[in-house]
Amino acid sequence: MKVKFEDVKNAPEINEYIKQADLSLKALGYTDHAFGHVYKCVDAGAKILKELGYDDDTVELVKIACYIHDIGNVINRHDHALTGAVMAFKILDKMGMEPENIARIITAIGNHDESSAFPVNEITAALILADKTDVRRSRVRNRELATFDIHDRVNYAVEESSLYLDNDNKTFTLKLKIDTKICPVMDYFEIFLNRMILCRKAAEYFGLRFKLDINGLELL
Fold first, then answer.
1. Exposed end of the chain (fewer CB within 10 Å): N or C?
2. Which CATH architecture has domain 5-218?
């Protein structure tokens, strides 16, 4: 591989796009999409493919895809997966990445948003699982509980979040501990049902069954 994850992580222009995209989302009232979310996705995506036995080069590609998957938000939240894929193509091509690897990464980025997503390859499936399962209190910017919208409540209510891949039983589990005084479980489903359906499809790409455990109860 000509371009590694470290090259992408240390590219000033990419990091500026990530910062500016997050500032736009902050202005719109969205949860954190800056480096906390980025690195959470990178770690989760890499862990998934490693545990499934994929080679080091494929793990490098998913880390890159996870790192830059949301840069399209610097243009607009609407269709950010598609604009992000085009931006990634130009950046990675200029950096000298091989066309085959660029193609796999921009496919993943272009297919990660639930409005138009589908796990068409292993990079995409891992990115979807890493991105859509990043639900946690620290992503909420607003600290005034009285002014929370439903997205704030759902994320803020999550006290613990963890992922478990069980190769023996062919399952992938998102386990959450939720404060139901802040957010009833039904509110979680109202906001995240489409994301959980997408996670199920992504898990099925790997021959796994997606499971959702909330407060010790298996709900999917």
1. N
2. Orthogonal Bundle (1.10)
